[in-house]
TrEMBL record:
Residue stretches spanning the membrane: 6-27, 73-90, 111-130
Keywords noted in UniProt: Membrane, Transmembrane, Transmembrane helix
Domain of life: Bacteria
Natural source organism: Crenothrix polyspora
Name of the protein in its database record: Uncharacterized protein
Amino acid sequence: MLFFPITLVAGIVLYTGSKAFVLAKVSERIDRHKKKVVSAKTKKADQTLAIASMSLSLAATGIVLRIPLLGAASIPIILYIFTPTFKNAWQKLYAKRRINDQVLTATRVTVCVVMGYNLIAALDAVLLAVSDRHCIRQQEKFHRSLQEACTNTLQLADKYSTDLQQTLLAASAIQQHGERHGEQMAPWMLAAFVVTLPMIGVNRAAAFLTTTFGAHLRKLGPYTSQQLSLQALEQGILITQASSLEQAMQVDTLVFSEQLFHDAITRSQAMNVMHDLRQRYVQDNTQGSQPLSLQIALADKTILQLAWLADLGMDGYIRTSPDQPLADALLQLQAEGRTVCYVDIDTRHDAARPTLSLTFAAHPLTNGKMASPDIILFGNGLQPLPQVFDLAASFKAKQHFNLIAPTGVDLIDISTTLLLDFGLIYSVLFTYSGLLLGMANSHNLKQDYQDQNTAAAITPTVASNCESGV
């Protein structure tokens, strides 16, 4: 009776884990081919995985050969692997007087060691090492690609690249929600373990200690952001803020500076780009908000030609003057319930090729000035602009999957624990299947981007977003 479900879950973990392992190996071979220097973090992650595999071998051999000393020999290795977890749990429990998933994990490992479940603890350590190793390798790959894009393509300072690495690790709104939900559920899961312990036994009750209820997003959130940012870099898009794509989904008004269209190539792209923007807005807009509005900002002395405005695919225009500066005009749109993205010329970066930048910030107008750009588009003129919203939709879908899938796994785990006697090994396999499934899903990002075969040269451009409630 237990064979089929445990085999099924083990198969899921094996599939997702092997897929992640293959992807890591491919990246490893590419690094060797390019003679990349392996960082200290990556070396340590590889060593940790090797040590964890040794503990699993010792525990399994001890059970097969019925030599308890071999199983006991794996305990120090297991405790070494989980040392950071115990440290974080101690800080959370005693310093902050709170319970989170790290406390549950530390309790689970302690129960396994005390009860002699060495094989389960060793398996737990191996799966933890595999997920950590894959996250670290992904982070290193992302950092290299980001540094190359900033220094070689955009000719930016190394400090700018380092700052971007930090801002992109910031938690998105969905990640913060998942972590909060995990912290709220952790005390209840610990209480459920204590209450059910006398009734169903430690092997089944400990399954409550494997649940996370969204806390997996601590790993999956940055992992998905980095994976999507890597694909964006391949498309000529540099994302500088973790929250940029979330805020891009809220934009319903784009205001373009007239200076953008002084270039003939940009004008020729405008109609198709505006058409694509409208199509994507209709597809992605499921909340029934206001229709997309495309405006052009004109200086007071500019002579407007209606035919030229129609050729650009604009819905209307905004007049600016010394009496009504651009910042006031955008704030007026905000007051009308619009979420505005302003697109303007940027000459701050000495890029090797023409760049275009977008800013999706909550409050970009500081002292009447736009904030630094959150997204930089380099090359191909206006063409990559619709792809930003494709990336935003894909990011939103992936993060929702990262929240729902592990939580669904936890609910199934609890149900089967209460109704059927599958045991703790089943729960450990099940909880890591949710994490590895999220990692595998992050690699299947949306590929419906436009062709970018024509490399157009335009003046460096910046887009700034003025956020308002809709």
